[in-house]
Amino acid sequence: xxxxxxxxxxxxxxxxxxxxxxxxxxxxxxxxxxxxxxxxxxxxxxxxxxxxxxxxxxxxxxxxxxxxxxxxxxxxxxxxxxxxxxxxxxxxxxxxxxxxxxxxxxxxxxxxxxxxxxx
Amino acid sequence: xxxxxxxxxxxxxxxxxxxxxxxxxxxxxxxxxxxxxxxxxxxxxxxxxxxxxxxxxxxxxxxxxxxxxxxxxxxxxxxxxxxxxxxxxxxxxxxxxxxxxxxxxxxxxxxxxx
Lengths: 119, 114
Fold this sequence. Notes:
The complex is a heterodimer. By secondary structure, chain A is mainly β. Chain A is globular and about 35 Å long. In chain A, 0% of the residues lie in helices and 50% in strands. In chain A, strand 4 and strand 5 form a beta hairpin. By secondary structure, chain B is mainly β. Chain B has no helices and 12 strands. Chain B has strands spanning 3-6, 11-14, 19-21, 23-26, 33-38, 44-50, 56-59, 62-65, 75-77, 86-96, 99-104, 108-113. In chain B, the strands form 3 sheets. In chain B, strands 2, 5, 6, 10, 11 and 12 form a 6-stranded mixed β-sheet that branches. In chain B, strands 3-9-8-7 form a 4-stranded antiparallel β-sheet, with no helix packed on it. In chain B, strands 1-4 form a two-stranded antiparallel sheet. Chain B is globular and about 45 Å long. Chain B starts with a strand and ends with a strand. In chain B, 38% of the residues are buried. The model of chain B has no long low-confidence stretch (mean pLDDT 92). The interface between A and B is medium-sized, with 30 and 25 residues.
């Protein structure tokens, strides 16, 4: 079946421009996560969605970053006034639900990522 | 807070050599532990997991045992292949408020030569 898809796969932008990154999770997955993979910081959690709500935005690095999810499906991560330190690979993951039965773990399935380069 | 520390790479091995990539963690509560693999040009894939102490996760010849006493989850493979060349990430989940966010180690690049 179809996995998590992300677009664009690569984005090059100029400092100060806004960018939008899109994530299409696996159909039926209610939980959606954004992570960032950068050379200096490794893989960092950014934000979590359960349905359309985002109960945890604690990983967003600044108020230039925002995300939304509509219809419990597609999510968009927006970065305003991009800076060079925003250059990274942005990964999206989805899971069937946020927390497994009896507190167990649901596997997160990752998309291929969007490589963002800010010049 | 919760954290994961894994050995720095790159690790360079000849085909059929034994592989160990060390991973230790700091966590409150009882997290699940994971190894993810990222092949060149591809996304992260779950390689194996263990959900409680003394569990052994295994897949594709790789194994890791959840050791609570040493807070470790070392990845091992008895005989690596060129196709195992990739970046390996150790991770734990951090159950909080009804969901599991993943906390990753820095990643270890493995290069296997024929």
